[in-house]
Amino acid sequence: MRNGSGEPGRGRSHRRLRLGGAVVGAVALAAALIPAVASAAAGGSQAAVAHKVTRGTAEKLTRVGTVNLGALSRAAAARRAGTSAGTRIGPGHEVPQLLPSSVKRNVSTALRHSALMPRAPLRTTFNGNVPGEIGFNGITTGTNEQTMGFDITPPDQGLAAGTSSAGPAVLQFLNASLQVFRPSGTPLTVPVSASSFFRLGPCSATQFPLNCLSDPRVYWDPQTRHWFITSFTFASFVLGPTFPPSTQYVAVSRTSNALGSYTIFKIPMGPGFIDPADCPCVGDFDMIGADRSGFYLDVNEFGQTMFHGTDLFAVSKSLLISAARGGPVPPVFLYQVPTLADPFGGFRLAPSVVTQGSAAPNDEYFVEADANTFSDTSLQVWALLGTDSLNVASAPPLVESNVATEGYSTPPPATQKAGPIPFGNSLGFLAASPVDSGPGTMQQNTTFASGNLYVQMGTGVNAGGGAANAGLAWFVLRPRPGTSSVSVRNLGNGYVHVNGMLIYPSISVNARGHGYMGFAIGGASRFPGAAYIRFDGALGAVGPIHIAANGRTPLDDFSCYPAAPTCRYGDYSAGTFFNGRLFFGTEYVHTLTNVAAGAQSNWASRVWSVPSWG
């Protein structure tokens, strides 16, 4: 791809997608991904590079109003009281919608490295569930039918565990719907429309994407015991400047109760820091983090013809909570990391969150893979230093370093076991398509535990004979902040690999670095399922793979036919540690598409938790 200035690899793939009889403009994930590539694994030595110190600029954070999640649930339940469960809008009215996903690539570099893939030891052993595992089915594509009346794909996994008036709670948010469960899976609310939660008008198929949201994230903060929920709208980016501008939304609980009241804030996207004429812009792929003093949100800014870089927003956590309770609204500081001006670019800077029980620093770390190439042997670590300055409305400096690592690469599409695809058959297709594995970049936040960063990503791995599989890479990094710089040591890295496909990992650990890595699993002999592996902070991923839930049928989704050679899958999984248990959520498939009822997808989500160890 080339942008308007002729620079390779920093553009955006446009595609007109015909979905359900309607043509919808969308930002498409690159469809023709070159098979997995990577450089040979590097050692764990430090390769520190100090880059410019950047100060943020104060931007306006606007308070929208308040909502009560419990009250929304009761109102939604009352509306559905006279309607049988699972009632759908018929196929004649249903227009399924593909949510945006953008990716930055350098194809020419990928071609030069296409034969180089990291070799990883085969992990062919599988085992049953860890004793004490609890799992349940979460939000499904049918849930969106209840809250909105049409199918949306893919299901991005917003998930956190924390406190509520009913005891421990798991809050799940998948694009269009929110729901709260007990850790056992017992619902504490009915599904609630995300648009109503963020005080927007209805998100409808006929006016998509007006008032529709994407890329949800959920975080329960162990220091303050408050909930943070984010998402964004993108109407003007798709429909044009006469529609409401793309906006980032942040909901902050007014108490520690997941079922209680939240204050909604918004941050409008700016005019575009590379080329204002290239807007309307969108802040794609929200990622959130927190340290002792600050709350952080960063997004990928895409314009109409090119990728601009990363917008990173920082705000005082205590002042934001005070504003949620009615106090003054604090400034939010914007850091712009342009891809054209920085040798490493600014793309998917994965923020860190502090695991429960660990001391929280006044420094926030962001880990970035090199998205300018299809493969690399280093990671970039960004740091906001002395973030307690946010409490007095002063922007901390943003600095950068990089560290040598094992090789990683863009994974190939994940094959899935052949099986019935009634919706695909209705369109004339005979076999299930592979599912998208995502780019070789950060999909999930990193975890900070007792001074270390625990990092995960999908990667291509050598399956033997020159073939490529989708596997997982993990890294344990030790950052050391200075007054105007940060240095980073690589304490260890490795791969998880089977004769199959592993995608969308998320590491969750306790304060001692002990936990699990959760992920989705597939392959030619498996329907898409949910799995996990033990993670030891000193040794990495160890032992057999545990199957949290086997898939029961192929993914049969409208994104599979006929516009793309792969099906859109969940853009990321989720993991968190709370009160002695490690919680995970990912997409899987457990039922056939109900074509007779108008369904055009059959994705589901699996939520599970296991006891902590060590």
Question: What count of helical segments does DSSP give?
Answer: 7
How far apart lie the N and C ends?
48 Å
Helical content class: under 10%
Q: Radius of gyration, rounded? A: 22 Å
Number of domain modules: 1
Going across the major beta sheet, what is the strand order? 3-25-24-23-22-26-27-28-29
* Annotation, overall tally of beta strands: 36
In this structure, how is the largest beta sheet organized? Answer: 9 strands, mixed
Mean pLDDT comes to 84
Task: Give the CA-based shape.
Answer: globular
Strand content: 35-45%
**Which ranges are low-confidence, i.e. pLDDT below 50, for 5 or more consecutive residues?**
1-51, 84-94, 104-116
